[in-house]
Amino acid sequence: xxxxxxxxxxxxxxxxxxxxxxxxxxxxxxxxxxxxxxxxxxxxxxxxxxxxxxxxxxxxxxxxxxxxxxxxxxxxxxxxxxxxxxxxxxxxxxxxxxxxxxxxxxxxxxxxxxxxxxxxxxxxxxxxxxxxxxxxxxxxxxxxxxxxxxxxxxxxxxxxxxxxxxxxxxxxxxxxxxxxxxxxxxxxxxxxxxxxxxxxxxxxxxxxxxxxxxxxxxx
Length: 219
Prior knowledge:
The protein has helices at residues 4-14, 19-43, 60-68, 73-85, 88-105, 118-145, 173-218; strands at 52-53, 154-157, 166-169.
């Protein structure tokens, strides 16, 4: 698939982000998207063909593979990248709404359509909450689906139509586990960055509102 849309989306949001937000975008680009496209995708490319069980019973390998890998790591990672990035559309849509509103009324309604205040600030805060929430949901999903963040070398399967408990071997388990740890680590860093940016913006605008109220009272 083409990742051009995701790249353009994040690039468009970059100009409205804080310094912390730009670090998040850089991590998504360099340490997640590029690593996925350049390296990780190839590691899982033939995972089904290289999954072997010590039996020739028809259908046994397919059933065991589906049991231990209900969703491919790499496809779930791709879905995570897409879902985590889509809340940024809230910011893009809100700026587009401001611009179209000014165009419709043919007058200047905002000091700057991209200025972080009012509705745009709320949209940005909601996008941060959604990003952090989606990251946590996918980490929990990874943990539940694969019984932890690990890739075993050997799994025992007794699913029908296997004649008995058979041994199945996963290809390149060490390499896959390294990429899985990398995925978890980058997700954790992104969660920290999202929460940090959320706290920073709330604190910044709380101080701003307090100073404005204090100044009005003084006057």
